[in-house]
Design goal:
The chain has about 375 residues and is mainly β. Among the domains are: about 60 residues, no CATH class; about 140 residues, Jelly Rolls (Sandwich), CATH 2.60.120. The strands form 10 sheets. Strands 17, 18, 20, 22, 23, 24, 26 and 27 form an 8-stranded antiparallel beta sheet that branches. β7 and β8 form a beta hairpin.
Length: about 375
């Protein structure tokens, strides 16, 4: 079993008794603690260590003049107060240990208060200052900055800015786009004031207003159409309605359209519609390729339309590879039910007819699948014409 004395456990009473008038310590690094004998002037008084004192007394204090210094002492034998002075008159210089009088012209320059206004010059060897004259300056013959009343030799410049004599010019083609001031976003550099002026940044509207309008004799901007969907731009620069009624509007289906997932529920074919105005007569022709999820899934193809004074149309679509379903209708939404079969591919639906609406509105091409969740798909590339 190992036993250890804990820190602070050894009290003074547990320590070894010492010889009288000794101290504990070590006189050298790394040596054991031992008794130390008191030296001269040291003694004990009970538990107090005393040191004998020795010294002297200052009886009088004075200052000796030397190295440029002098001084006086007040109360030299009791509480002295020393005042230092210097024996040097005039400008003082020092060398690190001694003060002496400085010499004008070599150690310092004299003041300039008595001189006139101008550029100072210093005289070699004496250091005397005076006002410089024109003869004190060399002739200027180099590139410099600032202004001069008279230039004896001109320094011609080259590069983006050129000069001959005192005339400077920006070289042709030197001002690149990067060197020009920044422009506001979406603007054009120009002058729309109607007279000579510095260029400015013009908005699109300001630039457009300055350009010619297209006409029978001039190139230019397309004139305002006035709105609408049927007018066209003529060669004379005007918009007008087509003459007669022998033109057609054409829409081509850009993406496949699937049927509603609920049986016999009509779906609009996106983009296959046209506006009609009450009292006008319109003709329409639609041809739609389509697929079916199963041969046992039929379909129906029809239109929605506003109330009409006259509406007649046929809707025919594939039944088998050699037969079709044909419907003749005088009301929108017919037939009301689907046929019973289709081809999985190679089907075609055709709707054509005439309408004279009694109120303005929209004619929309629509279709449905016979069977829920058995999709019939109108294929991209189908076309709608009306006129």
């Amino acid at each position: 079993m190992t036993a250890t004395i804990a820190n602070n456990a050894v009290t003074y009473s547990k320590m070894q008794a010492m010889t009288a008038n000794k101290l504990l310590g070590s006189g050298a690094t790394g040596t054991a603690v031992s008794e130390i004998t008191l030296g001269t002037g040291l003694s004990f008084s009970g538990n107090t260590l005393n040191a004998a004192t020795t010294g002297g007394t200052v009886t009088s204090l004075s200052v000796t003049s030397a190295n440029g210094f002098a001084g006086t002492v007040t109360n030299p034998t009791t509480t002295p107060s020393i005042t230092l002075t210097t024996t040097v008159n005039g400008m003082v210089k020092g060398n690190g240990s001694t003060l002496s009088a400085a010499t004008a012209g070599s150690d310092y320059s004299v003041g300039t208060a008595s001189l006139g206004t101008g550029i100072l010059k210093s005289t070699t060897s004496t250091g005397a200052l005076s006002i410089a004259t024109a003869l004190d300056f060399p002739t200027l013959n180099q590139n410099t900055t600032g202004n001069a009343a008279t230039v004896t030799t001109n320094a011609n410049m080259n590069g983006d800015v050129t000069s001959i004599g005192n005339t400077t010019t920006i070289a042709s083609g030197a001002v690149t786009n990067a060197k020009m001031a920044n422009m506001a976003a979406n603007t054009f550099k120009g002058n729309n004031t109607g007279s000579a002026a510095a260029p400015g940044d013009l908005s699109a509207a300001q630039a457009t207003a300055m350009l010619n309008t297209f006409s029978s004799s001039a190139q230019g901007l397309v004139p305002a159409s006035g709105g609408g969907t049927t007018n066209f731009l003529r060669a004379d620069g005007t918009f007008a309605s087509p003459a007669g009624s022998n033109y057609r509007n054409l829409v081509t289906l850009g993406t496949d359209i699937p049927s509603n997932s609920t049986a016999n529920t009509l779906t609009d074919i996106t983009g296959f519609l046209f506006s009609v105005t009450a009292g006008n007569t319109y003709r329409f022709y639609v041809i739609i390729p389509y697929t079916s999820a199963a041969t046992s899934t039929g379909s129906r193809w029809t239109i929605s339309a506003p109330a009409a004074t006259f509406l007649n149309y046929t809707s025919r679509y594939t039944l088998t590879a050699t037969s079709q379903t044909v419907n003749f209708a005088s009301s929108a939404g017919l037939p009301g039910s689907c046929n019973a079969t289709s081809l999985t591919a190679g089907n075609v639906a055709i709707i054509e007819g005439v309408i004279k609406p009694s109120v303005s509105g929209t004619v929309q091409i629509r279709f449905a699948s016979e069977v829920s969740s058995s999709t019939v798909t109108a294929k991209a590339g189908a076309t709608l014409e009306w006129w």
